[in-house]
Amino acid sequence: MAFKLENIKSGQKSKSNFDLDAMLKTEISLFGNSFSNKKKEAFYTEISVLLNAGISLKDTLVLIANEQKKQKDKALLEHIVTTIVHGSSFSESIKSVKDFSEYEYYSIKIGEETGTLKKVTKELGLFFKRRNEQRRTVLNALSYPIVVLITAVLAVLFMLKYVVPMFEDIFKQNQVDLPWLTKVIIKTSVAFQNYFWICILLFLFLLIARKIVAKKIWYKKINAKFLLKIPFVGELLRKMYIGQFTQAVALLTTAKVPVLNSIQLTKKMIDFYPLQQALKTAESKILSGSNLSESLKEHKIFDAKMISLLKVAEETNQNEFIFERLTVQYNEEIQYKSKMLSTVLEPLIIIFLGALVAVILIAMYLPMFTLSSVLG
Q: CB–CB of 171/178 below 8 Å?
């Protein structure tokens, strides 16, 4: 049964009580801060190591602050140390810094209240380590195909803007009858030159419009539905978000957070519409008396394997172990599918764009045979 987060005490500070509704209305963001995930991985890992070595929390933070090379990071950690010296808890001190999320605040808060801060900081370090590994895996898988795609697209655009018009002038001067394929390519080149800046402006408009509507429910719904239907990519995205879910719940379970509160926090942390809707429904069912496995069973975004393991975890009271195991499995699957995606995309992009360049060249050289006979 879940407890009320606003009733958690913070030791000597009575003003540290906080409202669950206010917290859940704040979207948790783990990306885009100056104190990045990579820095957080090192930060929490070092705290865990130094605390286990018997060093006090204040001295631990001072040592980590002195190691920082960037003045901004050093000032941030010194601010945390100062607030602790003035009587605030560690969780309250990071709450005052925008670079830390409510998710981290809540995890550390529970760690302090239950005497498991060493374990919680270790799990937070592993949490961000996996997030960083997941991101690196996807970037490594997509980097080469993206470079190939951009290079080939630029080559095609160069041909349409400079090469095709040059051939067009030659054909006009010699009044050569053009095959239909050549006419199509020439018309495409003319349209590209006439509407080039309009296309650029339209592209910029679409980027701005996307940023404006990115938080709209209808856009999230359509975008998620579209992405999940893309072959290979859709399945990879689904695994990534489910991996984030199990990772987040595993950390909260380690901090002795009840299932209902874990679902509430995770729902606000992961910005993926299908998963948020599934967790919203699960939250209602848990409040009605259902267990977690039954609440998630009807949603297609979750694997049958995952539901079966959750059912076993509930029967054996091994939630922490099962969620940790699921996280490891999903991370391994993400790495495998990322490599598969890269393996499949590279030849497909090369073949498609190679064929496109070949069509343009053939279209330009076909009239040359007629032109050579005329000149002959």
A: yes
User: Per-residue DSSP letters for 84-131?
Assistant: HHTT--HHHHHHTSTTS-HHHHHHHHHHHHHT-HHHHHHHHHHHHHHH
- How deeply is 375 buried, as exposed, middle or buried, from its count of CB atoms within 10 A (0-12, 13-18, 19+)? exposed
Given pLDDT bands bounded at 50, 70 and 90, which one contains residue 177?
confident
**Cβ neighbour number for residue 314 with a 10 Å cutoff:** 16
Model pLDDT for residues 254-279, shown as the tens digit of each residue: 777 788 888 887 887 777 889 888 99
Residue 375 scores a pLDDT above 60: no
Strand, coil or helix: what is 244?
helix
The token pair at 371 is: 């032109």
Please give the Cα distance from 330 to 243 (Å, whole number): 5
For 281, 282, 362, the CA distances from 290, given in Å and listed in that order, are 11, 9, 65
- Report how far apart the first and last C-alpha atoms of the chain are (Å, whole number): 92
Q: Residue 100 CA to chain centroid, in angstroms?
A: 17
Alpha-carbon gap, residue 258 to 321, rounded angstroms: 15
Q: Say how far apart CA 198 and CA 185 lie, in whole Å.
A: 20
Q: How far apart are CA 268 and CA 270, in angstroms?
A: 6
CA distance 88 to 90: 7
Going by the DSSP 8-state scheme, the letter that residue 373 receives in this structure is H
Q: Which residues contact 333 (CB under 8 A, 6 or more apart)?
A: 239, 243
Answer for the pair 325, 309: CB distance below 8 angstroms, yes or no. Answer: yes
Cβ neighbours, 10 Å, residue 208: 10
pLDDT score recorded for residue 31: 38
pLDDT given for residue 10 in this prediction: 39
Provide the CB-side half-sphere exposure for 274 (13 A, CA): 20
CA distance linking residue 63 with residue 82, whole number of Å: 14
